[in-house]
Write a structure and sequence with these properties.
heterodimer, A: about 260 residues, outer membrane lipoprotein receptor (LolB), chain A, two-stranded antiparallel ribbon, 15 strands, about 15% helix, globular, B: about 525 residues, mainly beta, Alpha-Beta Plaits, Porin, 2 domains, four-stranded antiparallel β-sheet, signal (chain A), lipoprotein (chain A), TP_0789-like (chain A)
């Protein structure tokens, strides 16, 4: 009884900021919503992507891709990924119409047969191009895809961050939870630790070299994924981000997939 | 841990091109390569020392103003002309992808304004997260490999050495025995302009075969121009068009003729001349095809394996149409998708791609089969429902004009188990039922048959794949085995294996002539 009274008095006297009254879940969600709000309205962008896959023995394998993204209001974004390297898959292209909780729609273009193949999209946790990135790590991060919990504030590499935990709400995720370090200034993740279905620590993603584009949107130059269970790593280097290139829905349909190079 | 400087990324080149074409002053000046620009001058100084230690000289830190901010630019080299600077840029590309050539000020005269935005903050490979409010990058066209605006071009292709090993001798004395070697070459030139709205593709194909003169052949797979607009696309020239969803047979895929000498799986096709207008609307895509000119099917010659008995004499082609191979065919296809359902409905009128094979004789009086191509009307449907890990597939057609009107269908599923046994591998289970109303008279191996198959994808860095299937006829006695596997070696080599075998085929069966033609094919291909 006494402690409850004291708490009330304390609240009345100090007038704690609103966030103190939020539950950790509410605060986690609020942070995710703020991330989403700040990263809304970009419309479309394109970027080059180079993946350097490295195994425990240090053997490297290179992938080169080009990516195009289209923002869709009230739904998941659309993306088109075109493969340039290795050369035997050159011209292969992956079209995704993502959704928050419903399965994504995905089509794969196989240039050898000029064939467009609708593919099953519940393979979210599988390796993307043999890398340590799963498809779900690279797809658009809608707020509704997770539930959240705020953990703490701390400093990460000298920058103030929020540390939150999020739990996939969509089916077929390979994770029970992800711990995310979010930069308080730019509201972008600096690090994510992935825990597998048995809740064992699986992978750590670190994001480097954030730059601001179109005076608003922050994108990393580099994403580094380390698999703690296998020792394999994938370095993903982004290049040539172009915002507002004028892409439309037409650039993300099955016809455009056949033209993608 | 530095990126191996293999291929280069484009922004640097574009920047260099912008500078070279626009921003360079006409006066003679020295040139250097700006590799990075930093807000924190200490970072610039650190990079300068690092580059000096790597043997670059001179390396200067120059003040730079861009977007109301002060930067410290790190510039390597002092060279009398741009071409020498370009050589230096080449050497630096691996480490500094956004490096570009810039003119240098006279010594002791610091730069106060930048001709263009500086290269962006370069995070050292092992440094903690660097966050730098970099200036907006200059607008450049989408990924190009030429400096010309909106143009992209690319040469690619492969060259492959193939061996087919036949454990048994051919049934006919003319047929070769033992292994067969052949070489295939398929280069492809692609050019895109008008910001991708127009493109041109040229893809010739050449095979040289050790034993079979008919398999030694050249074809233009593609030679076409495409113009894309908001709600239509026009594609004119020689092209390859694929329709269909099933794996065992490709029933509805009718636009292109089968290049049968390449492979019995009917996936290799000859280039088809066409004018194709696609109307792209809310209600789906409507493809209209005018197909001037017909390509007769290729067949193995008398020396070849995997052929009919007697062989097909492609010198003696007959047509129903008086216009023969110049008959203009037409086709229309509507395709769309609704949630998990992808659907295609098509109609084709013109020369059948499947010939009737009629008995005849060659000049010397020996028995041969001669192809006859009737005019047909074919209506077809292809349908796929993608539900979770299930792909449900159906191809169906009805054809008139070739014998009695008949129907054929293929349908089934592919169900994929992801990450089997806690590994990265996926295992697909395939089942397809194949039907043809012509029954035993059908010139196909598949009239009332069941295919069961497995697809194994380990999701490794080598893109290893394996597909195994068995087709059983209605009473299960005749079987057709098929194995396909491939794996990449390094970044440009690919090894493909293919094994095909039959069991319990009799001489009188439709494809009884290939009952001794089981084979293992090994192909090693170099892609560039």
């Amino acid at each position: 009884m006494i402690s409850r009274w004291m708490l009330l008095i304390l609240l009345a006297v100090t007038g704690l900021p609103a966030q103190a009254q939020q539950s950790p879940e509410e605060r986690g969600l609020a942070i995710a919503q703020e991330m989403d709000r700040r990263d809304s309205g970009w419309g479309d962008y394109t970027a080059g992507m180079r993946m350097i896959l490295r195994n425990r023995q240090g053997e490297e394998s290179i992938r080169e891709l080009r990516t195009r993204f289209l923002e869709v209001q009230d739904d998941g974004d659309k993306s088109l990924i075109i493969f340039d390297q290795p050369r035997d898959v050159q011209g292969t292209a992956l079209l995704s119409h993502t959704h928050a909780l419903q399965p994504d729609d995905q089509w794969l273009y196989l240039p050898a047969l000029r064939r467009v193949k609708r593919i099953a999209s519940n393979n979210k946790s599988g390796p993307f191009m043999g890398s340590e990135f799963a498809y779900e790590d690279l797809t658009s991060q809608e707020v509704e895809k997770y539930s959240y919990k705020f953990l703490r504030e701390e400093e990460h590499n000298g920058r103030p961050v929020f540390v939150i935990e999020r739990y996939p709400e969509y089916e077929h995720s390979g994770y029970t939870r992800q711990v995310v370090w979010i930069d308080q200034q730019i509201h972008q993740p600096l690090q994510t630790v992935y825990h597998d279905r048995r809740d064992a620590k699986l992978k750590t993603l670190t994001l480097h070299g954030y730059q601001q584009y179109a005076d608003q949107y922050w994108r990393p130059d580099e994403m580094y994924m380390e698999n703690h269970q296998t020792g394999k790593t994938t370095r993903l280097v982004w290049s040539d981000y172009q915002f507002g290139t004028g892409l439309t829905d037409r650039d993300f349909d099955k016809n455009s997939l056949k033209r993608a190079r | 841990m530095q990126i191996p400087p293999r291929t280069r990324t484009l922004p640097g080149l574009i920047l260099a091109a912008c500078l070279a074409g626009v921003a360079l002053p006409a006066t003679a000046a020295d040139y250097g390569v700006q590799v990075a620009a930093f807000i924190n001058p200490d970072n610039a100084e650190r990079l300068r020392i690092r580059l000096l230690n790597q043997g670059y000289e001179p390396v200067q830190v120059l003040p730079l103003i861009s977007g109301n901010r002060d930067y410290s630019a790190v510039v390597v080299g002092r060279l009398p002309n741009q071409s020498e600077a370009a050589g230096l840029l080449n050497r630096l590309r691996g480490s500094f992808q956004s490096g570009f050539i810039r003119p240098l000020p006279e010594p002791e005269a610091p730069v106060t304004t930048a001709p263009t935005a500086p290269a962006t903050e370069e995070p050292a490979a092992d440094s903690p997260a660097v966050i730098a409010p970099a200036p907006s990058r200059p607008a450049a066209p989408a990924p190009e490999n030429t400096a010309e605006s909106g143009v992209y071009q690319d040469w690619s292709g492969y060259i492959a050495l193939e061996t087919r090993l036949f454990p048994r001798d051919g049934r006919h004395p003319d047929q070769h025995d033992g292994p067969n070697f052949s070489l295939a070459f398929e280069p492809e030139y692609y050019r895109e302009w008008d910001n991708g709205d127009q493109s041109f593709v040229f893809k010739p194909f050449l095979r040289l075969d050790q034993q079979d003169d008919e398999r030694t052949h050249f074809d233009i797979r593609e030679l076409a121009w495409t113009r894309a607009a908001r709600d239509w696309e026009l594609r004119v020239g020689v092209r390859r068009v694929f329709w269909g969803v099933t794996e065992t047979v490709h029933l509805v895929d009718i636009i292109n003729q089968v290049d049968l000498v390449e492979n019995t799986d009917t996936e290799d096709r000859l280039g088809q001349p066409m004018i194709n207008l696609a109307l792209i609307r809310d209600w789906g895509t409507l493809d209209l095809f005018v197909l001037p000119g017909f390509r007769p099917r290729t067949f193995p010659g008398p020396d070849g394996r995997l052929r009919t008995q007697p062989y097909v004499d492609t010198e003696q082609v007959e047509y129903e149409s008086g216009a023969r191979h110049l008959h203009t065919d037409a086709a229309v296809r509507w395709s769309h998708y609704f949630g998990p359902i992808d659907i295609g409905l098509a109609h084709f009128r013109g020369t059948s791609r499947d010939p009737d094979l009629l008995p005849g004789t060659d000049g010397a009086g020996n028995p041969v089969l001669t192809p006859f191509y009737p005019i047909i009307n074919q209506t077809s449907l292809d349908l796929q429902a993608t539900l979770g890990g299930w792909l449900w597939k159906l191809e169906w057609l009805t054809r008139g004009g070739q014998d009695e009107r008949f129907t054929a269908a293929a349908g089934g599923f592919e169900y994929t188990l992801y990450g089997i046994l806690d590994s990265r591998a996926d295992l697909g289970l395939l089942a397809e039922y194949l039907y043809d109303s012509r029954d035993d008279t059908a010139p196909t191996l598949f009239q009332d048959d069941l295919m069961l198959g497995l697809r194994w994808t380990p999701n490794d860095v080598h893109s290893t794949e394996l597909l195994f299937g068995v087709v059983f006829d209605e009473d299960g006695s005749q079987r057709f085995y098929n194995l396909e596997a491939s794996r990449r070696f390094g970044s440009q080599w690919k090894l493909s294996l293919e094994a095909r075998a039959t069991s319990n085929l009799e001489a009188g069966d439709t494809f009884g002539s290939i009952r001794d033609d089981d084979y293992l094919q090994v192909e090693f291909a170099y892609y560039y």
